[in-house]
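Changelog note: in this version the structure field was regenerated for every chain. One regenerated record is shown below for reference.
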Amino acid sequence: QVQLVQSGGGLVQAGGSLRLSCAASGRIFSSGDMAWFRQAPGNQRELVARISSSGDTNYAPSVQGRFTISRDNAKVATYLQMDGLKPEDTSRYYCNAQLQVMRDLGKVNYWGQGTQVTVSS
């Protein structure tokens, strides 16, 4: 079964950096948009960054200039480089990807299991 597996979360001091990774575990025919979301307890899930299959990117205003999303199509993976972290970035981060597992099927939305990012002051 195809899954998105995340890694790279943890505890960091304000001003520090973390790099989150998300990779598909099974065979993938093609991939579409990939994105990172975050959700803190009691809050709604919000879009952090998105990258299209052609490399076009979109960022939430709160992370613009600090976070960078990238992708590796050969590995069917997406990465989120987080620099200049702030306590308000503390949240659980989830990756998301549109994946086509076979040529005769359409793309389906997949979610990673989530990883905790905690930024201390």
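Spot check on this record: Residues 5 and 24 are 6 Å apart (CA to CA). The first strand starts at residue 4 and ends at 7.
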